[in-house]
Amino acid sequence: MYTSGLAINQDVNIHYLDSIQEADQMLTPIIICPGLSETAEQYEDLLTYLLPRRTIALSFRGRGRSDTPRSNYDLADHVSDLSAVIQDSAIDRFHLMGYSRGVSYALGYAQTNENRLISLIVQDYPAEHKQMPVQWAEDYIHNYLMPTGRNKYIRQQAVKGIQRDSTSIQLHAKLTLPVLVIRGLLEGSLVSDEELLQYTHMLKDLTLKEFAHSAHDIRSTEKDALYQTIKDFLNEHETNGSVDLKAD
Questions:
Q1: Which of helix, strand or coil describes residue 118?
Q2: How far apart are CA 26 and CA 44, in angstroms?
């Protein structure tokens, strides 16, 4: 059902999935930035759910069917992966969504490209790009990726590159476009009350949706409600309307 594309970012091939063949070209597309160890393929159900809207999900460097360079795993490198996919898919204006670490990449793009965005969705991650602590990579690989089988989604070389190259960057530029901020309310959510307050300071047009029965991985606990929230927000802002999403 989905077109499989390869965008060339200098000498790095970035893989993405695109629902263009089934989409209504009159609707504004959305691009999805997956989480740290996620791939485009893990969002196929959301691509289907959002039809007839054209939806693109990419696998960042070192993940899925994208290339795994030896170096260059900082914020700017991931933002350049996103930019390459945008250029390759010939999209002018679009909605943008990020989940977890993918929020950093989406916000990093939005800081200097807000004029190309219709709206932005950030799911359960603060407005910053985090520097990974010493020994994070080994712990992440051996105590999370390998026990859960997620090592098939992201290469160890990429994990080590993220630890080595990542720098701490606050992504607090003022944005005027509509932004949907999504967070879980259970322990394990990655957006604290203080970090939510930071979003309210930097966003002029903020809509908040909180999931009372979820921590960080809302897709595993309240997927139907999450997907409906995303679709409703996109549909409302397709016509420059406003949406009021009450907390559960």
A1: strand
A2: 21
Question: Is position 139 within any domain?
Answer: no
End-to-end CA distance of the chain: 34
Q: Is residue 135 part of a domain?
A: no
Nearest residue to 118 via CA among 74, 54, 170, 75 = 54
Q: Which of 161, 8, 132 is nearest to 80 (CA)?
A: 8
Q: What is the pLDDT along the chain (248 residues), one digit of tens a residue?
A: 799 999 999 999 999 999 999 999 999 999 999 999 999 999 999 999 999 999 999 999 999 999 999 999 999 999 999 999 999 999 999 999 999 999 999 999 999 999 999 999 999 999 999 999 999 999 999 999 999 999 999 999 999 999 999 999 999 999 999 999 999 999 999 999 999 999 999 999 999 999 999 999 999 999 999 999 999 999 999 854 333 333 33
Dihedrals phi, psi of 123, to nearest 5 degrees = -115, 110
Q: How many domains does the chain have?
A: 1
Nearest in space to 50 (alpha carbons), one of 5, 95, 86: 95
| Whether this model's pTM surpasses 0.90 | yes
Structural domain of residue 76, as residue ranges?
Answer: 3-128+169-238
Residue 155 domain-assigned?
Answer: no
CATH number at residue 216: 3.40.50.1820
Instruction: Find where tokens 């209504």 sit.
Output: 24
SS3 letters across 55-100: EEEECCCCECCCCCCCCCCCHHHHHHHHHHHHHHCCCCCEEEEEEC
